[in-house]
Amino acid sequence: MDRTEQIRRLPLALAVALRLHEAGADKTLIAAALAIEPEGVGPLLQLARAKLDRIARRQLGGGDGA
Q1: At a CB cut-off of 8 Å and minimum separation 6, what does 7 contact?
Q2: Which residues have CB under 8 Å from 56's CB, separation 6+?
Q3: Residues 25, 41: contact at Cβ < 8 Å?
Q4: Is residue 10 within 8 Å of residue 48, measured between CB atoms?
Q5: How many domains does the chain have?
Q6: How many CB atoms lie within 10 A of CB 20?
Q7: Mind giving me the DSSP string for 16-64?
Q8: Which domain holds residue 9?
Q9: In a domain, 65, yes or no
Q10: What global pTM score does this model have?
Q11: pLDDT tens-digit profile of 14-55?
Q12: Are 34 and 16 in contact (CB under 8 A)?
């Protein structure tokens, strides 16, 4: 599974936040797209990256047991 497919497995809000961030959008734009406060973008991106890492580990057979 490639990265695009891994991102598709994320919840929609996390996938959108991550895609916008990787496309160069700033926190204000990401917040507006998701109808959240700009202060919430950083933690949302951290969560998206953590979930994406978990998906990648599971794909490689190195699940974390959760």
Answers
A1: 15, 18, 19, 52
A2: 6
A3: no
A4: yes
A5: 1
A6: 20
A7: HHHHHHHTT--HHHHHHHHTS-GGGHHHHHHHHHHHHHHHHHHHTT---
A8: 3-59
A9: no
A10: 0.84
A11: 999 999 999 999 999 999 999 999 999 999 999 999 999 999
A12: yes
